[in-house]
């Protein structure tokens, strides 16, 4: 009922060395390569040209097409919606789903900074 015996200092040191060695061996395998997002915003007309080929447009699909952050993708899609290029058809798990409007407009080149 009293539990196990308290380990001696030598036992604690050995256990800590073994744990440190195990961590050092695992580190190169465990490191994941993070996606680096570019600081340069893509040209809106180029981005819109890439989006045209998609059926359902979500922020995640835009992130996969271009190396931009999810937040930037959401802002860009909202801007395209304000300009009348996209229409929001629904949302799934908090992610808006857009579709193309049937117009042949091009997006404006200057992004809206204050939102």
Plain-language structure description:
The chain has 115 residues and is α+β, with helices and mostly antiparallel strands. It has a domain at 44-100: Winged helix-like DNA-binding domain superfamily/Winged helix DNA-binding domain (Arc Repressor Mutant, subunit A). It has helices spanning 9-30, 44-51, 59-65, 70-82; strands at residues 86-92, 95-100. It starts with 8 loop residues before the first helix and ends in a 15-residue tail after the last strand. The relative contact order is 0.14. Mean pLDDT is 77; it is low at 110-115.
Which strand order do you get reading across the main beta sheet?
A: 1-2
Instruction: Please name the CATH architecture of one domain.
Output: Orthogonal Bundle
Shape: elongated
Q: Give the radius of gyration.
A: 25 Å
Helix residue percentage: 40-55%
Provide a count of the helices: 4
Which percent band covers the strand fraction?
A: 5-15%
C-alpha termini separation: 64 Å
The CATH homologous superfamily of one domain is called Winged helix-like DNA-binding domain superfamily/Winged helix DNA-binding domain
Unreliable parts = 110-115
> Per CATH, what is the topology of one domain?
Arc Repressor Mutant, subunit A
């Amino acid at each position: 009922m009293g539990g196990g015996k308290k380990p001696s200092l030598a036992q604690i040191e050995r256990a800590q060395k073994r744990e440190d060695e195990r961590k050092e061996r695992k580190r190169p395998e465990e490191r994941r390569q993070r996606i680096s997002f570019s600081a340069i915003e893509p040209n809106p007309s180029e981005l819109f040209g890439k989006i045209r080929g998609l059926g359902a447009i979500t922020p995640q699909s835009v992130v996969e097409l271009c190396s931009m952050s999810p937040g930037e993708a959401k802002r860009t899609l909202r801007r395209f919606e304000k300009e009348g290029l996209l229409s929001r058809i629904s949302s799934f798990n908090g992610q808006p789903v857009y579709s193309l409007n049937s117009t042949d407009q091009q997006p404006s080149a200057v992004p809206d900074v204050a939102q």
